[in-house]
Amino acid sequence: MPGRPLTSRPGAVVGTVTRGTTNPNRLRRCDRWIVARHARYLRGLPEPVVVDLGYGASPVTALELDDRLRPHVPGLEVVGIEIDPARVAAARPLERPGLTFRRGGFEVPLDGRRPGLVRAFNVLRQYDESQVPGAWATTADRLAPGGVLVDGTCDELGRLATWVEVTVHGPRSLTLSWRLRGLGRPSVIAERLPKALIHHNVDGEPVHALLRDLDAAWERAAGHGGFGVRQRFLATVDDVRGRWPVEPGPSRWRLGEITLPWAAVAPAPPG
Ligand SMILES: C[S@@+](CC[C@H](N)C(=O)[O-])C[C@H]1O[C@@H](n2cnc3c(N)ncnc32)[C@H](O)[C@@H]1O
């Protein structure tokens, strides 16, 4: 794992309070992916625990994660963790069987239990890029064997979303997810890239080349638009697949979602 845990001080709350902006339903794209990609793994855990880290001023996204995942993971426990004590106090009245809230940070305090998945959305975007590897390492250290951290960013209404899947070995994949209706060009997602990539959307960097290629393929696929925006997007993905290792899965592409190995988009080494 690149980066060192941010602290080794036992009991320390790791991180800082940031803006609490959230919105109902804005994490639906990521939740749908979590169900598709990780529900089976979570079902296999003896004690499946999933954390919504940094749920914000209202715990609505934690309730939604619980609603969406529970039908697929019997015995699931969802824990909302916030670094701001006032936001924990505000969420507590909404606790229910299998869903609780507590204070904490990237160290993910769970009384010794290890989460199979930690979803941290719109949390690291308010940190400095230099803090990302340490935050990833701190949280990944807490995961159950085979577990993942999902570090993502989205717009206010969740029409554009991106996330990095991180394991104890480091970042594994990047997923980009667009609402296809009304999409002007794929690169509009640039402003919602995760912190680890957003400053790398410049000439010479892989993520910039990917977005440029997607835009060019989108233009070439304009003729498919007559069959609907979904057909245009499928043709776009088909076009770039020759040059980019987009994971197989037309059923995901139809949703306006592509996943690539992290190695394909990782920032170029400095120098
Ligand atoms: C912009 S809100 C995101 C809310 C929700 N996750 C969403 O995407 O709609 C970010 C929240 O993360 C919290 N936060 C920041 N750093 C944190 C950390 N290290 N651990 C837990 N919460 C953190 C902030 O206090 C804030 O409430």
Task: Describe this structure as you would to a colleague.
The chain is of the alpha/beta class. Helices cover 30% and strands 18% of the residues. The chain has nine helices and eight strands. It has helices at 28-43, 60-69, 85-91, 132-140, 195-198, 206-220, 229-240, 250-253, 262-265, and strands at residues 49-53, 77-82, 99-103, 117-121, 148-154, 160-167, 170-178, 257-261. It has an eight-stranded mixed sheet, sandwiched between helices. Helix 1 crosses helix 2 (60-69) and helix 6 packs across helix 7. The longest helix is centred in the N-terminal third of the chain and has 16 residues, at 28-43. It is globular and about 55 Å long. Bound molecules: S-adenosylmethionine. S-adenosylmethionine (SAM) binds next to strand 2.
Structural class, from secondary structure content? alpha/beta
How many DSSP H or I helices? 9
Strand arrangement in the largest pleated sheet: 3-2-1-4-5-6-7-8
Q: Uncertain spans, ≥5 residues at pLDDT below 50?
A: none
- How many strands in all? 8
Molecular shape: globular
- Rounded to the nearest angstrom, the radius of gyration is 18 Å
Strand content: 15-25%
